[in-house]
Amino acid sequence: MSTETRDISPQQLSEWLDAGGVTLIDVRGADEHYARRIEGATLKPLGGLTPGDLPAEGRVVIHCRSGVRGCEAVSRMARSGRGEVYNLVGGIKAWEREGHDVTIDRRVAMPIMRQVQMIAGGTVLASVILGVTVSPWTLAVAGFMGGGLLFAGASGFCGMATVLNKMPWNRAPKRGADQSVATA
User: With CB atoms counted within 10 Å of each terminal CB, which end of the chain scores lower, N or C?
Assistant: First the structure.
């Protein structure tokens, strides 16, 4: 079995999808996938992607937001010996930029990591302002947030993201034909 892997353009993917016989895998997070996706893509987040998730034969195209995670996934699959695995250059951003349709669900909240960044940044900013104007003890909150972010970066586990994933606004909405719109 060949371990050949390649990058393909959005135009080439569009032609393959029109012709059929290609499996499209989205390696982004569930929140990203449900908010904006290429119709027909199967969600398999990068962290849990294994060669067994891919069909044994045929072309497989992997995509992410910008092409970085897709490239990592393609490289991982190539090392496993799986042939005919391709990365969509530029990811869904390039797909959309070139005028291809995406399905958008406007009811999906912003990505979890953006929520984490906003909460952590806002908390640090507020604690520093309070530390300067009210009490230096409030700077401990900024230290706690910094420690949490350091731990998340080192371990790959973000407690805040775990909690945010359980919030009602971050749960995958029920699918329905009238709940999403396709755009070019």
Answer: C
Residue 180: inside a domain: no
* Range(s) of the domain holding residue 45: 5-104
The reported pLDDT for the residue numbered 133 is: 96
Instruction: Determine the Cα–Cα distance for residues 182 and 184; give it in Å rounded to an integer.
Output: 7
Of 31-35, 125-129, 136-140, the range with the lowest mean pLDDT is: 31-35
- With contact defined as beta carbons under 8 Å apart, do 99 and 179 qualify? no
For 128, residues 6+ apart whose C-beta sits below 8 A from its C-beta are: 139, 142
Averaged confidence pLDDT in the chain: 87
Catalytic residue among 62, 64, 120, 158: 64
Burial (0-12, 13-18, 19+ Cβ within 10 Å), 63:
buried
Q: What is the pLDDT of residue 173?
A: 58
Of 16, 1, 11, 2, whose CA–CA distance to 61 is shortest? 16
| Alpha-carbon gap, residue 28 to 155, rounded angstroms | 20
Total domains present in the chain? 2
Q: Is 64 a catalytic residue?
A: yes
Residues 41-59: tens digit of each pLDDT? 999 999 889 888 888 888 9
Is 183 inside any structural domain? no
Name the more confident of 71 and 80. 71
